[in-house]
């Protein structure tokens, strides 16, 4: 089961598998209380990637819920503030500025998603080095692999200004097609049907 929790910055999802609860992504800093209230307790907090709008509340939330934070090992250095993402263009400069004001709370400890045995984790690099998608039944939580436009809410690809490697990104778009999901749960915007995703890819490839 995948459920949306209202939060600022990005979509935060509650995933329940075999009675175990997981939180996927945490939004900007300041979301920890409302997520904790909605979830009460959880097995772990999983980050689809280390961008500021997804990891912003992870540290505070892990303290409240007393749970571990999981991510792909290729995201660890970014989550700990050792490495910085490169954003491009004007929108990239704006994002960097915004991030510097909001002061990310970097993580002290992160566990590898490989330890999560009851979830199917798919490495989908490109948007960032260690971006992941999570398959839950017929639903694929895909982080920023695809998103919806702010005003029209139509599905679209993530901006090149924020992507780490465009070639890898395209490869990951094709990679997820091999999995049998019906619904995509993106990091931003509404749920996307598989047909919509396939239509989107036809325009790219
Ligand atoms: Zn992102
Ligand atoms: Zn995002």
Automatic annotation (TrEMBL):
Keywords recorded for this protein, A-Z: Hydrolase
Keyword Metal-binding attached: no
Family annotation (Pfam families): Lactamase_B (PF00753)
Gene Ontology MF term list: hydrolase activity
Gene3D superfamilies on file: Ribonuclease Z/Hydroxyacylglutathione hydrolase-like
Coiled coil: none
Signal peptide: none
Entry annotated with the keyword Hydrolase: yes
Residue ranges occupied by any Metallo-beta-lactamase domain in the UniProt entry: 9-188
InterPro entries (UniProt xref): Metallo-B-lactamas, NDM-1-like, RibonucZ/Hydroxyglut_hydro
Xref: CDD domains: yflN-like_MBL-fold
PANTHER family, per database record: METALLO-BETA-LACTAMASE DOMAIN-CONTAINING, METALLO-BETA-LACTAMASE DOMAIN-CONTAINING PROTEIN
Protein name per its UniProtKB record: Zn-dependent hydrolase including glyoxylase-like protein
Lineage: Archaea, Methanobacteriati, Methanobacteriota, Archaeoglobi, Archaeoglobales
